[in-house]
Amino acid sequence: MTCLLKEQKFECRVSSVLNKNVKSYGKQFMFDDDGETCWNSDSGSPQWVLISFPQEVDLSSIEIQFQGGFAGQKSHVEAGADSKSLEKVQDIYPEDINTTQLFKLNSVIKAKVFKIVFESSTDFFGRIIIYKLSLIS
Question: SS3 for 109?
């Protein structure tokens, strides 16, 4: 098991950032290995995280650590050659807990772009808070 985000160059986009405060709650904090920092979305559903690689990679699992009370509920993973050709590959069902959760995909997905869509949140306002996100080959 290899974390693609540590081994490969990648770009990340997110649906929103709380109050547009990127310095405190930006997407970069999902990947900094600091348990005190996080990506915090603004309110509203759905929220999403899009990861793009320069070349095709194999994805077998996803690890996410949410803030309890601000976890994704019904969610799914999309994959494709680019952000315009994404197709849904699998539903995932996160729990409303603080610990890191592992979501094994039904099969290895080969793609350049992956999008995790949080269709709903455990937060009444639809906010998502992620401390850690890993894509695993």
Answer: strand
Q: pLDDT digit string (tens) for 25-50? A: 999 999 999 999 999 999 999 999 99
* 60 exposure class (CB count in 10 Å sphere: 0-12, 13-18, 19+): middle
Is this model's pTM higher than 0.85 or not?
A: yes
User: If you ran DSSP here, which 8-state letter would residue 102 be given?
Assistant: E
pLDDT tens per residue across span 84-133: 999 999 999 999 999 999 999 999 999 999 999 999 999 999 999 999 99
Q: For residue 22, what are its two tokens?
A: 């990127």
Please give the torsion angle defined by the CA atoms of residues 55, 58, 63 and 66, in that order, rounded to the nearest 10 degrees.
40
Task: List domains and CATH numbers for the chain.
Answer: 4-136 (2.60.120.260)
Q: Which among 49, 50, 47, 25 has a CA at the least distance from the CA of 38?
A: 25
Contact indicator for 120, 72 with CB cutoff of 8 Å: yes
Q: Is 119 exposed, middle or buried (0-12, 13-18, 19+ CB in 10 A)?
A: middle
Q: How far is CA 112 from the centre of its chain?
A: 15
